[in-house]
Amino acid sequence: MRVLAGRRTALAALLVLVAPLLGGAAGVRVTLAATAPAAAPAAPATVDQSSSDKLSVVREAFDALYGGFEAPLRSDVLLGDAWDGVNMALSNAGLSTLSAPALTGDVGSDWRAFADAYRAAVGTAVSSGKATAADLAYGAINQMANARNNCHTAFLPPDVNASASGSERHQLTTDVGFIAGRQNNLVYRVYPESPAEKAGLRPGDILLSSNGQGDPGIRRRIFRANAGQPVNVTVQRPGVNGPVALTIVPDETVLPFIRTQVLPGGIGVIQWDDFTEGAGMVDAIRRAIADFQQQGVVGWVLDLRTSPGGDAHTMAAVASLFMPQGLIATSIDRGGARVPTMADPAQTLPVQLPMVVLIENYSASAADILPGALQDNHRAYIIGETSAGCIGSAILHTLSDGSGLQVEVEHVLIGNDQLDLNGAGITPDETIVWTPEALAAGDDPQMDRAVQVLLAQAGR
Fold it and tell me: How many C-beta neighbours within 10 Å does residue 149 have?
């Protein structure tokens, strides 16, 4: 969906609340209050940064997981997963898999055994001409992350990490202007005047191919294209026999922090995807509310249906706008230490109106926590579908070759009731499904119901 400038230095860490669920900026963000740096693992500290076999990058990833993952890990388990990833890379290249090194649970000897076996595997792969050191290194790191079975722990190749690291800066950026689900390729939003809208893409379309290829990679090829570089896309459109061919030409633009509208009856809607770092997004919401007030708005809708999450501090600041007191969330680190995030009454808007929050299956991380806290504090009525349940706090490490590793470092409980909803999600007060057919027809039963609820509360 977008490519952002900027990259952090090697092993820089950013605390985020984002889940890689939507096919936008290949999606990773982060969760709650700032934490101390991850404890250094009890392992040899020296890695050979001059080596071309990328073993040093694997080591950086191992250190980040071994020393920082929210549940302590054994070195033999973690490096066993890494070796599985090496063998997957060899197999994908058409090469024979290799016997695993002997791992005992002693971190020092385990690393030496893995390193020796890894160097031999790289030698075999490179001499064959069928695989590179990067293939094996990224296979190892990816499997160390995937084996955690944790939605906040993921490996990001260099091109993906370049846009995921740091904040959404809302400066000139390359954008195509739509959001599609990673798991189903369903187009949920097409923004007005965007390259996608100009190409004829519609909500309810299902992506079939990009530049002549299907999955894996349909969304990546679209979202990573350079400005002015046409991408040929085919979609399945409800009611149309056969695929529809489109050409999307990404453009450079400055993305808004939020999008707003006032619906008939005086209902103000604020929609956003990313909880972006810094004060810009919260200031934009304040300005929108002030503008709504001048227009005589009687209720607010926060639309988080395509939000994968974002910055934890921004999430807490947005919650504080609408709730003057109460516990937003509690972070628990691997040592059991608890850090509460409380609403800040100094930030609360002076005028409060009835509010509905819209969520669905792709509302994740910060977009899980915010509606959960507002619901638990009896501040908002929730409509839609159960949220993603990807609830935790992560640190995004940029590795020395520009790739990235997001690692969950804290467990998060929601609201005053300390709700543990990771893997379960937020249950709406009223369940209404936004179907592909409704998307294609331009209908929005969730928003229609939100307006109905708010107008009833306003006595209209």
Answer: 7
Residue 7's CB: how many other CB atoms inside 10 A? Answer: 16
Q: How many CB atoms lie within 10 A of CB 46?
A: 7
Q: What are 427's two structure tokens? A: 């249950």
What's at 140, amino acid-wise?
Answer: A
Q: Are 231 and 222 in contact (CB under 8 A)?
A: yes
Asked whether 375 and 323 are in contact (CB, 8 A), the reply is no
pTM of the model: 0.82
Q: What are phi and psi of 197, to 5 degrees?
A: -65, -40
Model confidence pLDDT, tens digit, residues 2-30: 222 222 222 233 344 455 433 333 333 33
Provide, rounded to the nearest whole percent, the portion of the chain with pLDDT above 70: 86
Q: Which amino acid is residue 2, in one-letter code?
A: R
- Which three-class secondary structure state does DSSP give residue 381? strand
Task: Determine the average pLDDT of the residues in 442-448.
Answer: 96
Using alpha carbons, select from 153, 154, 158, 115 the residue that is nearest to residue 134.
158
Burial class (CB within 10 angstroms; exposed 0-12, middle 13-18, buried 19+) of 159: middle
> Mean pLDDT, the chain, as a whole number?
86
The 10 Å Cβ neighbour count of residue 183 is 11
Confidence of residue 158 (pLDDT cuts 50, 70, 90): confident
Looking at residue 33, the DSSP 8-state letter turns out to be: S
Phi, psi of 56 (to 5 degrees): -65, -35
Q: Which amino acid is at 294?
A: Q
Is the pLDDT score of 44 beyond 70? no
- Predicted local distance difference test score (pLDDT) of residue 456: 96
Closest CA to 422 of 383, 395, 388: 388
pLDDT confidence band for 173 (50 / 70 / 90): confident
Quick one: pLDDT at residue 182?
77
Helical packing angle, 133-146 and 75-92, nearest 10°: 130
Q: What is the mean pLDDT of residues 146-169?
A: 74
Strand, coil or helix: 318 = helix
* Dist CA 285 CA 41 (whole Å): 42
Neighbours of 396 (CB within 10 A): 26
Q: Which domains does the chain have, with CATH numbers?
A: 37-151 (no CATH), 172-254 (2.30.42.10), 259-457 (3.90.226.10)
**Half-sphere exposure at residue 258, Cβ-oriented, CA atoms within 13 angstroms:** 23
